[in-house]
Design brief:
four-stranded antiparallel β-sheet; DUF1508 domain-containing protein; alpha+beta
Length: 64
């Protein structure tokens, strides 16, 4: 699990496709974003989650 000041990301196995992974970005228990598709490796999902997390965090802090 990765985190910024406001958001955390989780990498979980895809429930529909064995051996694939999806990411979720949350603020507390509220989901803000989910991966649009599954990834072949956990590392690939982590990299994409980090990109989404940074983009969301920069957009969010820009609104403050």
């Amino acid at each position: 699990m990765r985190e910024t000041d406001l958001f955390t990301s989780r990498i979980e196995p895809d429930p529909l496709y064995a051996e694939r992974f999806r990411w979720t970005v949350c603020e507390g228990s509220q989901i803000h974003l989910r991966s649009p598709h599954s990834y072949a490796t956990k590392r690939e999902a982590e990299q994409e989650a980090d990109k989404a997390l940074q983009k969301l965090a920069s957009t969010w802090t820009g609104k403050r």
